[in-house]
Amino acid sequence: METAQNFTRLNHWTYDQLLQFGVPQHAAALINMLLLLTLLLCLVTLTDYIARKLLVGAINKFAAKTTSQFDDLLIQNKVIYYLAKVIPVVILIKAIPLVFADYPGWINTLKTFADVYIILLSIWTIRAFLHTCKDYMKNTELFRDKPVDSFLQVITIILYFIGGLLIFSLFTGKDVWAFITAMGAASAILLLVFKDTILGFVASIQVSTNDMVRIGDWITMEKYGADGDVIEINLTTVKVQNFDKTITTIPTYYLISDSFKNWRGMQRSGGRRIKRSILIKISSIRYLNPEDIQRLSKIGLIREYMEQRAQEINVFNEQWNIDKSLLINGRSMTNVGVFRRYIDAYIAQHEFTHKEMTMMVRQLEPTTTGMPIELYVFTNDVRWDKYELIMADIFDHLLAAVRYFDLEVFEQPAADDVRNLFASTNAKNLLTPLQAMQN
């Protein structure tokens, strides 16, 4: 009140001084208003500077003495900065009627713009505070992988919507509820305009409630070319950083309308599956004769199995008086069966296979490309690079071991194979007439 009175006295004093200098009344009123406006702007600027320095400085000193990050985030997100602006705005609103006392038509207009600024300042302050809460929650274990951004965006939209209603009410002079009632007729248009936002909001709630995706999850969505880690979940989109460092943006709604693969379960289990086959050339599969059995018994991993299995087969064949002059009679071991046993023993003793998960070697249906021997096992390291190294190491060994069992891996003929075949055929065709002439 005292400040207003001083401002009023100053107004009258400057006006009287201008009149004494012979300035016309109209010009004196205008010059007086400009002088007071300049003084007011200087006062508001000075007050803003002092408020920010004192308030922000005090909070900075307080934050330095605490271990909590919340006060640091308040400063970082400019919450204190916006709060400090309240004091100069209040001074500005109170001084407008005094500065423009000689121009009353301007007072209501300027006060309206000042009120609009107060509304916007309030929205910015609340939004900054919400960002502070979001950043703080993301640093906690409970909310670190939750789509907090989606809910923040929804609240921000609601804030701006309320702010827009209040600003509209200020400029039109109509009640807010009257405007809301009038908008009921335009609800269909609003639903169409905000369709993606509404769908995204519903999808974000479902994604969060059902724990379908978290920040940091590895997901694969082939339809959109996504194969990497989720780095952001917001109201309308999910950002995935692929392993080639590109960014794929997926509409949040499609996470519940389309299928995708989340590798979180694999990462948590501690084991990653290997499911790969070796294609055995069917013509290389045969029975083992005694010499083969004796030779394969020298392989350390299957020595005990070979001895035990050979004894069981011999007992059976002798019991039923089987004629073993033909290996097809009675019971016999095959090279591919022994190879499967070898793979079983190899993966069982491998240091990087997960011993508490499924370990299986199975024979699949023969095809035109051979008979698949499929290895179904889990590695005990889920890291991608380590997984690839383990799998390559296992199959390097098995592919090299195939020949010890007199088996062949099926592969399509290469260009060299075709050329060698034609070369050998042409050589034979040339030798046949020469040999006939010599004879």
Automatic annotation (TrEMBL):
Regions that span the bilayer: 27-51, 79-100, 112-130, 151-170, 176-194
Domain Mechanosensitive ion channel MscS: 196-264
Entry-linked SUPFAM superfamilies: Sm-like ribonucleoproteins (SSF50182)
Pfam family, one: MS_channel_2nd
Keywords carried by this UniProt record: Membrane, Transmembrane, Transmembrane helix
Cited InterPro entries: LSM_dom_sf, MscS_beta-dom_sf, MscS_channel_2nd, YbdG
Location, primary (coarse class): membrane
Location of this chain's protein in the cell: Membrane
PANTHER family xref list: MINICONDUCTANCE MECHANOSENSITIVE CHANNEL YBDG
Name this protein carries in UniProt: Mechanosensitive ion channel family protein
Organism: Pontibacter locisalis
Lineage: Bacteria, Pseudomonadati, Bacteroidota, Cytophagia, Cytophagales
